[in-house]
Structure of ADP-sugar pyrophosphatase:
Amino acid sequence: MSGNKNTPTAQPKLNGTTAAAHPSAPKNGSAPSNGKIVPRVDSVVPVASTKWLALETYHYTDEDGKQRQWDVATRTTKPKVDNSNGVSNTTPGNTRSTADAVVIIPLLSSKSNPSNKLETLLVTQFRPPVNGYTMEFPAGLVDAGETVEAAALRELREETGFVGEFCSAVPDVSRAVCMSPGLATETVHVVLVQVDLDNPYNHGTPKPELDDGEHVTLHRVPLDEGLKTLVDTCPAMPIMGLYLFAMGFQLGKQQQQAEKK
């Protein structure tokens, strides 16, 4: 999975120009006091692309000062990095992010019926790369010029039909997190969205607004210790983030029970 190898020492080019060193890299090639070089990506060389994906070779300098290569997959729709305002595009609170997508954790509750258990929404769909069905939280790409919160609310509505809260309970946005850093540049924001079941739009069985060719089965499940059993026994392959969420939820419940004894 590494895909890295030694490369010539000449500085690679990016679109005909010398790539700038990483902002945190020591000047004039000097090393920090521990003798290690601050690793940095020196340049990116396109290899091939389709409408949605591109293969690129990253030329980078490692901690020993050696120049190496890494083959990387990236989305052609990925927003460009722009830190000209001095604010990182992956920090919490920066809603106009360079992350590719949002992963939504819906929290369904009703004030008029507080006895109802807290629920969440999961979706199953066929994923060609794994040649099978997967179980996931609702998710989708962030459109150009769209805030993370707006993308989360839009994708939730389109994929599940449910309408999330924005005014009474602002979505809780995580920092950008990586998905498979040994393979791809993809990053996402995890967004907690409150869904008010007393809202008339959420009564009954809301109708999703799926794209052409998108076939999604919605699952409304209790958010309790049974979630881990569900993802363990469902025929669909759970996505890693959902599985880790279920494991963490179960461990939290077990810890609560142990403290009560």
Q: What stands out?
A: Residues 6-30 have pLDDT under 50 and may be disordered. The radius of gyration is 22 Å. The longest strand covers residues 40-49.
